[in-house]
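ok here's Protein-glutamate methylesterase/protein-glutamine glutaminase:
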Amino acid sequence: MIVDDSVVVRGLVSRWLTEDGGFEVVGTAANGRAAIDLIERAAPDLVLLDLEMPEVDGFTALPKLLERRPGVSVVVISTLTHRNADVSLKCLSLGATDYLAKPDSHRGVTTSTTFRAELLAKLHALGGARRRRFAPAAPAVPSRGRLDAPAPAAPAAPALRTLPRPRAGLVAPRALLVGASTGGPRAVAQVLGGLGASLQRVPILVVQHMPPIFTAVFAEHLATHTGMIAREPEHGERLTAGRIYVAPGGRHMGLAKDGTAVSIRLDDSPPVNFCRPAVDVLFRDAAAVFGASALAVVLTGMGSDGTNGARALVETGATMIAQDEATSTVWGMPGSIAKAGLAHEILPLDGIAPALKTLLSGAHP
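and the structure:
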């Protein structure tokens, strides 16, 4: 279901989704009030929800949409302003699944191949995750003419291989690295919020796939949520324990060694894995700078960004944790690491902070 006050945007996005072939547009609405009235009849799996609309805006409509259609995945859409970024992240805390920044004019929406590609990729990832999560059980298959014969058992998914756990107390962590994408803002906030005083032990470096402006607002939300200093760093800034550094949207965040100190490296080099900032960039630099004393976690997100960097990290003896499929919005990034056998632990979201606290204390689970 598409909810946007612009008839141009509703028509254009409807056409994109229809031409793609993987979606059915079950309804459109020009404002939040119409969307609330429509959602039960339309029964969508996914909702694209504009924030700025007359009568009832997207932020006001969101809780009522979720109440009337429990389990629906809502992607909020807004232009790139500080206010809209703040409202988008608040929507995530209210139950929206993800966000998407859109061009600030009809012409921009019409001509932006990037916006179209990002929208389709995000909806495909969310739709695929929903299909796997809500797939009906296979019906019974008759065997040798007997209707009551049990269906043949489905082949079991291959067990994921994890790396041997590092020896307890072998290397004390000197930095916590966090990578995330789709569904990441809520997941990152939950993990860091669950670390408590352990956040004071090391610098925390976060790469969350987000556009400019959004990353600065995300850092503000993390600061409020954790009570720690959290912000976008400056190029050349030295790392300090107990601070949260969020990679700025549109720039890679890496690390450089400056004598015995470690500093932030920001650059505008080409995207890696179609991403800038990219998790791989941070992980590769951390492997060179921290080696076995790095502690890394990859949370929910589409794509495979972070896998090559994870390989570099574990080759040095660093510890890698991946979020499990059941609690991930999209099991792309952590799934890629898990399937490559690069994780020491594959944990549900609520198990990650306790595991990190144990590791940061110098022990190992």
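+1. Residues 175-360 form a domain with the Rossmann fold fold (CATH 3.40.50.180).
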